Amino acid sequence: MTRLIFLGPPGAGKGTQAQILAQLLQLPHISTGDILRSAVAQQTHLGVKAQSFMDQGELVPDQLILDLVQERLSDEDVIPGWILDGFPRNVSQAIFLDELLLAINQRCDNVINLDVPDEVLVTRLLARGRKDDNEEVIRRRLAVYREQTAPLIDFYRTRQQLVSIDGNMPLDAVTEALKDVVAL
Ligand code: ADP
């Protein structure tokens, strides 16, 4: 039983590492970014509402995310554990998640913070070239991260759930460090 939250700035490698670890642990990888991108691609109600926020590098409003996460965490396949990637992304989402986990009698084991210097992040994101990976939007996403998501580092550190990992190492070395955390 493993329940993990991946925290870290855009471009830190959360998605890549969360996916690898989910595969190794045979657990669902729940990425709010992936869920939103697929909603946008299919132009669902959620996707239509989320798109402009995402294109500008802003967070999608909480009300669009919270129900979605609550529903996903009540699916059968998450009973053995889960890896959350991209959620929570601000303090109110973190408080919501706390209350939700309490209500469903689950506890998150670790919050993993992937640490990567800003200049490396910008280089990586520009190389990736997703639709929201142009320089202006990247800058905005980094600012939003600093303002709204980075405070979660202290939030979880205070509760002794935080594990920081140097995300500026080769991909395999980051995976090895993560395997140590989950005792694989
Ligand atoms: P990144 O590589 O920037 O971390 P993500 O795939 O996690 O990318 O997220 C892409 C975009 O989706 C974000 O910039 C944001 O607009 C939206 N998003 C993802 N997760 C959340 C969330 N928990 N709350 C609000 N917006 C979110």
Task: Give an overview of the whole structure.
- The chain is of the alpha/beta class.
- It has a single domain (2-176), classed as Rossmann fold.
- The protein has nine helices and five strands, in the order βαβαααβαβαααβα.
- The protein has helices at 14-25, 32-42, 45-56, 62-72, 91-103, 118-128, 135-149, 151-158, 171-181; strands at 2-7, 29-31, 81-85, 110-115, 162-166.
- A five-stranded parallel sheet has the order 2-3-1-4-5, with helices on both faces.
- α2 (32-42) crosses α3 (45-56).
- It is globular and about 40 Å long.
- The protein binds adenosine-5'-diphosphate.
- Adenosine-5'-diphosphate binds at residues 10, 32-33, 36, 53-54, 57-60, 65, 86-87, 89, 93, 141.
